[in-house]
């Protein structure tokens, strides 16, 4: 073929493709219900692919985290001792405001809504209390992601140890902050998502679920079983166990604790109970029938290698939570509710929730939700705004004086043609959460903006090493630590401001005021 004919052929082909780019429908042509035929538009052919790439290099540079162990993130404790005062105040760790990627936001700039929690932190050395930070969230915080970093930093600066609250059985087999094992008879009943219709109450407790080692019996079934079991030969005795072990993925401080609490209740018959610290039996008792919440507590001089709980009885109590803590400082709990939008608290037994929160001395709730709302495409999320606001108001009523910080959802990506783009409703959901937080007089932290805003998730996915998973929704372990560090810096910046405004001016310029390490 002559060169001129080859050139003409190429020109005709390119001209045909260019014409298709002009006239092909931008939304594509629907071939089947699941398949749409697309062709690049003129704008797409002419655009620079790098224009859609979000640069996160500065974010990463300002928020470096350990590659491996969280033990490297622990801070030394520093206290300011006031002259002629028995109060010892914890001073802040210096935070450069310019390195705070995204600051906390407040309704009408009322930063004092954090002051009740900050006051507890600053005086925790003097009062010897154990206060609690409960981190609720969806699957974005599973496997102790985000929470583990916050726990390490807060306990390192203000004292405390242990993993905090854990369920009787871990539904997804995560190996942090502890390792759990159990016999085969255990069943978990969640209070969100697909709930078991056999459960005829709302006593789901602080973890939004409870567990039993015998199938739950509602009132009708229980009466039938009781009538039948009057013949002793028909009585079925259940013997089950739980085992709590240290996780190799947790920091040194998490693997230390000096007290263990068991939250349970509503067993109709007595239960034989034994507690073992490693191979040593340390307690054996009868748990009598209970028509309400029961709390048992044990203390240890040295942290056991593992704990083993043994139960034997005709029925099972409802196990709401186990708590492994130090005797003072800060406890930080990781409470992931996979598939939840954070609207579970108003549907749970309020009396039970209040009693558990009170015993645990909860002072700060971190609420990290919104991701599970994104797949339900809509232009209006007023219903979510109202529902989430009701959760915050309910929690404040149950825990008088509690501080609440709402963490907004992260960027999430959909694939359009050959590019990953943000869900179109991310900002609307973010604004619904933020509006609910402000209306309920709570602080807000914007994950979406902190990580780079629109279309930033691909930059996290394709980072080296990856900071987000290939589902373009969830962060990797390292990515979650970057997010946690950004949030922690924002929190400590506000603590520094509180300290300067409310405490530092009380320190005498002359006399015995001094800095001391603990």
Any descriptors?
five-stranded antiparallel β-sheet, Rossmann fold, 3 domains, single chain, 518 residues, alpha+beta, five-stranded parallel β-sheet
Distance between the termini: 87 Å
Structural class: alpha+beta
Oligomer: single chain
List low-pLDDT spans: 509-518
What's the total helix number?
A: 13
Average pLDDT taken over every residue: 88
Q: Can you give the helix content as a percent range?
A: 25-40%
- Approximately what portion of the residues adopt beta-strand conformation? 15-25%
Topology:
Layout: H1 3-23, E1 29-30, E2 36-37, H2 42-46, H3 57-62, E3 78-81, E4 88-90, H4 115-122, H5 124-127, E5 130-137, H6 147-158, E6 164-166, E7 178-182, E8 187-190, E9 209-212, H7 219-228, E10 238-246, E11 259-265, E12 271-277, E13 280-287, E14 293-299, E15 306-313, E16 318-325, E17 329-336, H8 350-360, E18 362-368, H9 382-398, E19 403-407, E20 413-416, E21 419-422, H10 426-439, E22 443-445, H11 447-450, H12 457-461, H13 477-502, E23 514-517
Parallel strand pairs: 5-17, 5-18, 18-19, 19-22
Antiparallel strand pairs: 1-2, 3-4, 3-23, 6-16, 7-10, 8-9, 10-15, 11-14, 11-16, 12-13, 12-15, 20-21
Helix pairs in contact: 6-13, 9-10
């Amino acid at each position: 073929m002559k060169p001129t004919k080859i050139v003409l052929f190429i020109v005709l082909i390119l001209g045909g493709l260019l014409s298709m780019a002009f006239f092909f429908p931008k939304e594509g042509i629907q071939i089947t219900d699941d398949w749409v035929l697309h062709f690049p538009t003129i704008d797409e052919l002419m655009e620079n692919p790098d224009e859609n790439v979000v640069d996160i290099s500065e974010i990463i540079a300002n928020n470096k985290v350990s590659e491996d162990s969280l033990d490297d993130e622990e801070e030394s404790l520093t206290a300011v001792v006031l002259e002629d005062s028995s109060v010892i105040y914890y001073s802040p760790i210096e935070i450069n405001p310019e390195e705070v990627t995204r600051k906390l936001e407040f309704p009408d700039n009322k930063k004092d809504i954090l002051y009740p929690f900050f006051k507890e932190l600053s005086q925790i050395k003097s009062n010897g209390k154990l206060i609690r930070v409960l981190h609720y969230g969806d699957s974005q915080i599973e496997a102790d992601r985000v929470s583990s970093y916050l726990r390490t930093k807060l306990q390192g600066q203000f004292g405390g140890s242990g993993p905090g609250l854990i369920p009787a059985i871990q539904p997804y087999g995560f190996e942090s902050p502890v390792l759990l094992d159990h016999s085969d008879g255990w069943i978990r009943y969640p209070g969100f998502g697909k709930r078991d219709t056999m459960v005829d109450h709302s006593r789901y407790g602080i973890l939004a679920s409870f567990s039993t080692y015998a199938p739950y019996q509602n009132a009708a079934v229980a009466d039938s079983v009781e009538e039948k079991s009057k013949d002793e030969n028909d009585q079925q005795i259940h013997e089950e166990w739980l085992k709590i072990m240290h996780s190799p993925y947790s920091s040194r401080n998490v693997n230390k604790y000096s007290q263990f609490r068991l939250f349970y209740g509503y067993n109709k018959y007595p239960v034989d109970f034994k507690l073992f610290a490693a191979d040593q039996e340390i307690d054996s008792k009868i748990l009598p029938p209970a028509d309400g919440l029961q709390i048992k507590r044990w203390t240890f001089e040295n942290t056991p290698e593992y704990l083993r709980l043994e139960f034997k009885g005709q029925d099972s109590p409802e196990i709401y939570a186990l708590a492994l803590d130090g005797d003072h400082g800060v406890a930080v709990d990781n409470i992931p509710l996979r598939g939840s939008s954070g609207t579970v608290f108003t549907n749970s037994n309020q009396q039970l929730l209040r009693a558990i929160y009170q015993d645990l001395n909860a002072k700060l709730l971190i609420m990290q939700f919104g991701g599970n709302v994104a797949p339900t495409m809509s232009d209006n999320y007023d219903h979510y705004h109202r529902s989430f606001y009701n959760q915050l108001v309910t929690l404040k009523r149950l825990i008088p004086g509690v501080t609440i910080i709402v963490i907004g959802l992260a960027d999430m990506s959909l694939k359009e043609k050959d590019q990953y783009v943000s869900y179109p409703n991310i900002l609307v959901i973010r604004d619904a959460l933020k509006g609910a937080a402000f209306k309920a007089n709570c602080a807000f932290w914007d994950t979406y903006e902190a990580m780079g805003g629109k279309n930033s998730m691909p930059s996290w996915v394709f980072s080296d090493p990856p900071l987000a998973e290939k589902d373009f929704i969830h962060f990797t372990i390292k990515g979650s630590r970057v997010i946690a560090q950004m949030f922690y810096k924002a929190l400590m910046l506000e603590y520094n401001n509180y300290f300067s405004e409310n405490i530092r001016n009380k320190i005498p310029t002359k006399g015995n005021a001094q800095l001391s390490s603990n």
